[in-house]
Amino acid sequence: MTASDAPPVTPPGSPEASPAPSPGRVRKAVIPAAGLGTRCLPLTKALPKELLPVFDRPALEVIAGEATESGLDSLVLVTGWGKSAIENHFDRLPALEEKLSRQPDLLDAVTRQTRNLSIISVRQGAPLGLGHAVGCARRAVGDEPFAVMLPDDLVLGPVPALRSLVQVFEQTGRGAVLVMEVPKEMIPSKGIIAGKQRADGTIDITDLVEKPRAEDAPSNWAVVGRYVFPPSIFPRIGASGSGALGEIQLTDAMRLLARDEGLIGVPINGRWLDTGTPLGLMLANVEYAWSGSADARAALRELLGRLERSDRPGEH
After folding, report:
1. Which of helix, strand or coil describes residue 212?
2. CA–CA separation, 8 vs 22, rounded Å?
3. How far lies 20's CA from each of 262, 273, 304, in Å?
4. Domain locations in the chain?
């Protein structure tokens, strides 16, 4: 089915709406991980940004944990040149596992994701945009719904962010994306939605614009790094040609999906953390350390108290 011949969809809750067939289980998450990480140079000159630490584990493992906690069982890694360390991270290392056999907690931490997830790796030959990266996963995903998780975007909250999108998709059969309100100065760096808020707080999306000028934006609701799509998104990727910045934008395919089948925005429930910059990475480390370890909280309190005292004249 193409964007031009897809039938109209009656919005959920309208009198004409009929029970939708089961949309299928969301099992796979596509992880676009082919970027060069230029915002974090020189940290990322030799180390993929997806493996930079967030407290006690790599950022990509935080993403993997969110996927498993949301009911998924497979990751499709879209990688490029110089990213073999990502694939190696999810590989088995029998010699290390044998050495850790008498340290069960550490062994579990090292092997948890390889036990819980199947890993598929595909290559993005050229950096042609997020839409292109997702399109590279088409054969690996097949004809089933799937998630997309951007590894720069972490959400620290009471429940896994992706789980709420999976639930909305399974209830409605429509694609779902995570959204949050952003200040005016952030609008030109985000994909911005237009839509109508529903009684349950979600938003029926009617349009999306990639990186608009603040004065031209249809709202201040931005898409935040988590998506669940039906497989019908794939033929829409690239259907409008190149978009903003000359790249194949995922936003353009989402616009067509919203028009033809419906797309739902799910407001974030938690704190969004951008690990794609050194400052953002540092803040994410502090947030995850504070939330995950009593020892870390005590150390942070002591450090912050000492730093505050050092800023006061005459105190040491």
Report:
1. coil
2. 18
3. 13, 35, 54
4. 28-310
Q: Do residues 50 and 33 touch, judged by C-beta distance below 8 A?
A: yes
Q: Which amino acid is at 59?
A: A
Global confidence as pTM: 0.86
Contact predicate 269/158, CB 8 Å: yes
Any idea which fold 28-310 has? Spore Coat Polysaccharide Biosynthesis Protein SpsA; Chain A (3.90.550)
Q: Are 248 and 152 in contact (CB under 8 A)?
A: no
Cβ contact 139:39 at 8 Å = no
Give the model's confidence band at 24: pLDDT under 50 very low, under 70 low, under 90 confident, else very high: confident
Report how far Cα 316 is from the mean position of its chain's Cα atoms.
Answer: 43
- With 0-12 CB in 10 A as exposed, 13-18 as middle and 19+ as buried, what is 267? middle
Q: Which of 166, 165, 162, 137 is nearest to 234 (CA)?
A: 137
Q: Which residue type does 108 have?
A: D
Among residues 145, 141, 127, the alpha carbon closest in space to that of 248 is found at 127
CB contact at 8 A, 78 and 34: yes
